[in-house]
């Protein structure tokens, strides 16, 4: 092999069975993936994929190679983490993965102060609902709402994230006999808890919160989304509902990188300062 980076492209295409999907995952072009896979096949002297109606399927040789690349890929990723972990500079990049709603409702101001305090750190933020793989350094630090943090990650639980029932002040003043239920497309929040009829369903916390602010009904939101929002009122007749937890995590191999350590400590402090509100306990 002339280029070990071709293994990343090969593995991405094998998993997705699609040149386009592999290109999107690797943040490159369709043409680059196609060209590099053809070049790899030429180097190895064997076809790696067969094109079928369900996509690109591994040949027998390709499957054997896929099995062997697992340990190679793990080794390359470990070297990358080791090098980053040994980097003792306070200047340089660090990548954070966080839910967009958590960024806006909890972390926007703390991260602004982090950037002002550490102007030589190049902070990259990715807002996504899926777990980034800290093994592969898709992110250096992740903040996630989960009940099952990944085993390979280290860090701490920074808060519980319970649910509570909210509506607008206007809706409460003119509350109907049968309530309208505004739901997030998430199992614990879909079914009405009150004498209510289903009126709205969305897969976005931001959208559900907006519909509630507009006086369309009552619904469940995580407390971090609604506590302190002057346009929303929490219904005392519905008790807090335990749900998931908020975790701040990294990989043990890069924990002592000073930029990672500074960011982790800053996030711990930010969540500690807001924990009562996030957990629905603020007076």
Helix/strand layout:
Blueprint: H1 6-16, H2 19-26, H3 30-44, E1 49-52, E2 55-58, H4 60-86, E3 92-98, H5 100-117, E4 121-127, E5 141-146, E6 153-167, H6 169-173, E7 179-184, H7 187-190, E8 196-202, H8 205-213, E9 219-222, H9 223-226, E10 233-234, E11 241-251, H10 258-278
Parallel strand pairs: 3-4, 3-5, 7-8
Antiparallel strand pairs: 1-2, 5-11, 6-9, 6-10, 6-11
Helix pairs in contact: 1-2, 1-3, 2-3, 5-10
Instruction: Please give the share of residues in helix.
Output: 40-55%
CATH class of the largest domain: Alpha Beta
Query: What would you call the shape?
Result: globular
Helix-strand sequence = HHHEEHEHEEEHEHEHEHEEH
What's the domain count?
A: 2
Strand content: 25-35%
What is the first-to-last residue Cα distance? 63 Å
Rg on CA atoms, Å: 23 Å
Annotated CATH architecture of the largest domain:
3-Layer(aba) Sandwich
Poorly predicted regions: none
SS summary, helix count: 10
Could you give a short account of the major beta sheet? 7 strands, mixed
Whole-number mean pLDDT? 88
Helical/strand content category:
alpha/beta
Per DSSP E runs of 2 or more residues, the count of β-strands stands at: 11
Q: What is the fold named in CATH at topology level of the largest domain?
A: D-Maltodextrin-Binding Protein, domain 2
Keywords: DNA-binding, Transcription, Transcription regulation
Family: Belongs to the LysR transcriptional regulatory family.
Pfam family, one: HTH_1
Protein name: LysR family transcriptional regulator
């Amino acid at each position: 092999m002339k280029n070990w980076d071709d293994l990343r492209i090969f593995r991405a295409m094998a998993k997705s069975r699609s040149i386009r999907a592999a290109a999107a995952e690797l943040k490159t072009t369709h043409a680059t993936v196609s060209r590099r896979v053809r070049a790899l096949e030429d180097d190895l002297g064997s076809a790696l994929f067969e094109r079928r109606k369900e996509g690109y399927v591994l040949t027998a040789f390709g499957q054997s190679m896929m099995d062997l690349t697992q340990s190679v890929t793990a080794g390359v990723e470990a070297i990358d983490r080791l090098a980053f972990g040994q980097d003792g500079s306070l200047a340089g990049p660090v990548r954070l993965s966080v839910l967009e709603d958590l960024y806006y409702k909890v972390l926007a101001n703390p991260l602004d102060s982090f950037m002002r305090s550490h102007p030589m750190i190049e902070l990259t933020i990715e807002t996504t609902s899926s777990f980034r793989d800290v093994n592969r350094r898709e992110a250096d630090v992740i903040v996630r709402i989960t009940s099952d943090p990944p085993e390979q990650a280290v860090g701490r639980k920074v808060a519980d994230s319970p649910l509570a029932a909210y509506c607008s002040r206007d809706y409460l003043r003119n509350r109907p006999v049968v309530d309208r239920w505004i739901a997030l497309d998430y199992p614990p929040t879909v079914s009405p808890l009150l004498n209510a009829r289903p009126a709205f369903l969305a897969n976005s916390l931001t959208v559900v919160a907006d519909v509630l602010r507009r006086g369309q009904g009552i619904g469940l939101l995580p407390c971090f989304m609604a506590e302190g929002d002057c346009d929303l009122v929490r219904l005392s007749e519905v008790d807090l509902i335990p749900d998931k937890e908020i975790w701040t995590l990294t990989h043990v191999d890069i924990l002592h990188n000073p930029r990672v350590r500074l960011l982790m400590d800053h996030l711990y402090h930010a969540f500690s300062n807001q924990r009562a509100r996030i957990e629905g306990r603020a007076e």
